[in-house]
Amino acid sequence: MKYVDEFRDGDIARQIAARIHAEARADRVYRFMEFCGGHTHALSRYGVTELLPPQVQMIHGPGCPVCVLPIGRIDLAIELALHRGAIVCTYGDTMRVPASQGLSLIKAKARGGDIRMVYSAADALKLAQATPDREVVFFAIGFETTTPPTALVVQQADRLGVQNFSVLCCHVLTPAAVTHILAAPDAQRDGRVELDGFVGPAHVSIVIGSQPYVPFAEGWHQPVVIAGFEPLDVMQAILMLIRQVNEGRAEVENEFTRAVTPHGNLAAQRLMDEVFEVRDSFEWRGLGEVPHSALKLRERYAAFDAERRFDLHYQPVPDHKACECGAILRGVKRPTDCKLFGTVCTPDNPMGSCMVSSEGACSAEYAYGHARRIPIHAA
Amino acid sequence: MATRPRYIRPLDFKAGRIDMSHGAGGRASAQLIEELFMPAFANEWLAQGHDGATFAPPPELAQGGQLVMATDAHVVSPIFFPGGDLGCLSVHGTINDVAMSGARPLYLSASFIIEEGYPLSDLRRLVQSMAQASHEAGVPIITGDTKVVEQGKGDGVFISTTGVGVTYPGLRIDGRQAQPGDVVFVSGTLGDHGVAVLSQRESLAFETTICSDTAALHTLVADLVAAAGPGLHVLRDPTRGGLATTLNEIAQQSGCGIHIDERALPVAPEVEAACELLGLDPLYVANEGKLIAICAPQAAARVQEALLAHPLGRGAQRIGEVVADAQCFVQMRTRFGGTRMVDWLTGEQLPRIC
Amino acid sequence: MCLALPTRIEEKRDGDEALVNLGGVRKLISIALVPEAQVGDHVIVHVGHAIGLLDPQEAERTLAMFAEVALTAAATPTGAAT
């Protein structure tokens, strides 16, 4: 696979790792937050974390849209399927997230809810056209990478005059989430944030560009390196972050130049702006209410807004008392700090979203982390 | 000889459909058996027309071999996919289950649950595919059953097959026999079947030349037994849940750990690409014509030779070893030289967006 | 931030659709979000949509940067266990 395999070269990885070992100072700790589910996955799948020196610590941030989706939103989707007779189309990621009353989308399906997994929003629209006598709702989750496809589909539905299609919009915004993390009281000690930098998301940045991260570098003095999705990209970005920290710089650097430009994909941004507007506030699982952090459909497209169409009312549902997903999502606690981790909460019986999604910090730790606690014999 | 009931007209394989009468046990059922199943499976047991089939004990019993029975229900969707269909899959699957117990498969039974309205043309295609698989493998289908369920109560067709076999005398091959130091082989490329089936699912539609690897592995097993004898410890086919799940099962049963090397895993480039596109891990994707062989280190060279010499083992690779590990973990050395846990599959692997 | 891969455009079809190729697997996707994409270009695909173009020159530059890091690593004794 061109432009993929070259960025997974094991030999080069080891050499970048050697550089990281050489340049990371022994007298300090480096805490970097990676904000992208894809990065969490790359780190785990390729065992990158093991190649890093112990003083370089990677913190998994709330970059997984499934992990930050509140239970109350999944409840709405389940309600539509079980009680309002709608066909609910969803990406595979959300199927197993536990919601209220011991249900999840996959369990609601077993109870007779017509819930269908789709690979793209366009599939949901096609289904609506094929079943004109049924209401079809697309459960739209995701950050700015996934939002433009939803916008396209809404416009298309409007153009074609499809009468039975709507979107349950749970799209969220990256910069708002980063601000929230930096501003959170428990992330700071003596007024300074305990993070040394961010690995910026790969594909969100293709859409929004590298400019939106400048306030974090300038305002919060946080180094940001936008990294591609492959393991070599991530490792290179970590090296670049270490250099910024060592040199006292706080800039937005772009490692993913092959796909990310300063301004991003303007066509996609224009489209998002035409179809969506920013909500005043939106609840993120684990982060609470975050201002200006999510999208809803504009008035012009009200007919396609499932919340308005079905008169849905969002009810916040608190997480299990002992569930530490919130603190974990903000990077202030580790999965192993959670009392439920590995005991009650496992991939087969997830209590919170960090365990359900394969990018969730807890799921990654559970699946791949055991090995780190076992002595590894050098080859 | 029993008098055959007279049928008003022969089954319409072009446009006809299964209806409730075909499962009722009466004339329509008999016609279905006589005009479809019997000519296709064509053997002396079915010709006798009894409810059950009798057969003599195989010679291996006298030499200390044991009888083996295995059963499997097959519900794959779609029913027809590149490289195979539900029919041959159900034959291969159960032959393989028997073979993986270190046994020579002898006979099969097949039961069909068919949905009212299912086209006879498709049913015939399936039955002929089963017949071909059965004849090529030399394992006859000697008894069977057919039921019909109302429309909406079945996914077209479900086929359940049961196989009977006899173990190779003097050998104990099962999931508990792996020992630290044993060598782990896989007989060929991983993930072909799962990707071939997924490529036909409407919502994921992608074009690929990947075909299912569905195949009967019993002759390969016979070669391995001949080559390694008691040095062969475990045989298993990594079907649902893929290689990862099967290795975890074996590790658990044997009370050992297993270490594999990612660079040694054979995966066809297209399978790798399809898995990337869908967010699937080839380690967890189903195979239907591959086996895992775990053997004593002294037998490894002979096992490798036997694998590579057989048409179904040409792509065989040595992928790892069994180690002492009280926690029975399966771990993989990644391309990067790091180590990663390879855990059990949780629920069904669903294509993901992030 | 999500699962997205660089694929090569093989054919452009009607209605903003294109046939792309990744490692021999072909899929029909939408290029509505990257209208300037041409046959032969590589686009990053996410949930059935191209979201951006891949710049081959930048890709080479990035790989060269890795190689340079690798060279430096090889030349400098690190004393660190890898």
Estimated radius of gyration of chain C:
17 Å
Compute the number of structural domains of chain C: 1
- What is the helix/strand order of chain C? EEEEEH
- Which stretches of chain A are low in confidence, meaning pLDDT under 50 for 5 or more residues running? 374-379
The number of E-state strands of chain C comes to: 5
The fraction of residues in strands of chain C falls at 35-45%
State the helicity of chain A in percent bands.
Answer: 25-40%
The top level CATH class name of the largest domain in chain A = Alpha Beta
Mean pLDDT of chain A: 89
Largest β-sheet summary of chain C? 5 strands, antiparallel
What would you say this structure looks like, in words?
Chain A is of the alpha/beta class. Chain A has two domains: 139 residues, Rossmann fold (3-Layer(aba) Sandwich), CATH 3.40.50; 147 residues, HypD, alpha/beta domain 2 (Rossmann fold). In chain A, the strands form five sheets. A five-stranded parallel sheet of chain A has the order 2-1-9-10-11. The two termini of chain A are 28 Å apart. The C terminus of chain A is likely disordered. By secondary structure, chain B is an alpha+beta fold. Chain B has two domains: 148 residues, 60s Ribosomal Protein L30, Chain: A (2-Layer Sandwich); 159 residues, PurM-like C-terminal domain (Phosphoribosyl-aminoimidazole Synthetase, Chain A, domain 2, Alpha-Beta Complex), CATH 3.90.650.10. Chain B contains nine helices and 13 strands. In chain B, β12 and β13 form a beta hairpin. The longest helix of chain B has 18 residues. Chain B is globular. Chain B starts with 26 loop residues before the first helix and ends in a 13-residue tail after the last strand. Chain C has a single domain, classed as SH3 type barrels (Roll), CATH 2.30.30. Chain C has a five-stranded antiparallel sheet with strand order 3-2-1-4-5, with no helix packed on it. The chains are: A alpha/beta (379), B alpha+beta (354), C alpha+beta (82). At the A-C interface, α1, α2, α6, α7 and α9 of A face β1, β4, β5 and α1 of C.
Secondary-structure blueprint:
The complex is a heterotrimer of chains A (379), B (354) and C (82).
Chain A: H1 10-23, E1 30-34, H2 37-45, H3 48-51, E2 56-60, H4 71-82, E3 87-90, H5 105-110, E4 115-117, H6 121-130, E5 136-142, H7 147-160, E6 165-171, H8 174-183, E7 188-189, E8 192-193, E9 197-200, H9 203-208, H10 214-218, E10 224-226, H11 231-246, E11 252-254, H12 266-275, E12 276-278, E13 281-284, E14 288-291, E15 295-297, H13 306-309, H14 325-329, H15 353-356, H16 361-368
Parallel strand pairs in A: 1-2, 1-9, 3-4, 3-5, 5-6, 9-10, 10-11
Antiparallel strand pairs in A: 7-8, 12-15, 13-14
Chain B: H1 27-41, H2 44-48, E1 67-74, E2 80-81, E3 84-85, H3 86-99, E4 103-115, H4 120-137, E5 141-149, E6 157-167, E7 183-186, H5 192-198, H6 218-228, E8 232-236, H7 242-254, E9 257-261, H8 269-278, E10 292-295, H9 300-309, E11 317-323, E12 330-333, E13 339-341
Chain C: E1 5-12, E2 17-22, E3 25-30, E4 42-46, E5 49-53, H1 56-75
Antiparallel strand pairs in C: 1-2, 1-4, 2-3, 4-5
